[in-house]
Amino acid sequence: YRSHKYCGYCGHEMYPSKTEWAMLCSHCRERYYPQIAPCIIVAIRRDDSILLAQHTRHRNGVHTVLAGFVEVGETLEQAVAREVMEESGIKVKNLRYVTSQPWPFPQSLMTAFMAEYDSGEIVIDPKELLEANWYRYDDLPLLPPPGTVARRLIEDTVAMCRAEYE
């Protein structure tokens, strides 16, 4: 709401709608909806292991799956392939949608996927990641907290590995 104090059409003050997530112009009644930035997040499995990384923006020792914003003109599937390649040098296959999770800040909608390793060696983008490695499903590092979509993807991957390898 802070970014829409004044109407882009007539310049008058805006106020929050009482019936929906929107801002209304006090003069011309123009309606503005919040913008949502679509993001992807993906768990990548290779045999009995999952690709986990430490991100540069989170220096708390937590290892998580890869994620990133969808670019204009890009499908969700293309965004997964691009983000994974950019951040890790890995190519994925058999992409499958799992769930979604809204994040109010930074106004994003996470679309969660699972994928299988196709090819490539890990080569991290040091602007994005501190490190990335394959971790066996029964020997994982510190993970994101329960309730996050990242944690769900990791737990789903672990469950699939257990079903296959135990």
Automatic annotation (TrEMBL):
Annotated Nudix hydrolase domain ranges read: 34-157
Task: Check the record and name the CDD domains matching this protein.
Answer: NUDIX_NADH_pyrophosphatase_Nudt13 (cd03429)
Q: Which reaction does this chain catalyze?
A: a 5'-end NAD(+)-phospho-ribonucleoside in mRNA + H2O = a 5'-end phospho-adenosine-phospho-ribonucleoside in mRNA + beta-nicotinamide D-ribonucleotide + 2 H(+)
Q: Record keywords: Glycosyltransferase included?
A: no
* Any one cellular-component term (Gene Ontology): cytosol
What cofactors does the UniProt entry give for this protein? Zn(2+); Mg(2+)
Alphabetical UniProt keywords: Hydrolase, Magnesium, Manganese, Metal-binding, NAD, Zinc
User: Example GO biological process term?
Assistant: NADP+ catabolic process
Cross-referenced Pfam families, in alphabetical order?
Answer: NUDIX, Zn_ribbon_NUD
Q: Which molecular-function annotations from GO does this UniProt entry contain?
A: metal ion binding; NADH pyrophosphatase activity
NCBIfam families in UniProt: PRK00241.1 (NF001299)
Q: Which family does it belong to?
A: Belongs to the Nudix hydrolase family. NudC subfamily.
Q: What is this protein called?
A: NAD(+) diphosphatase
The record lists the organism as Escherichia coli DORA_A_5_14_21
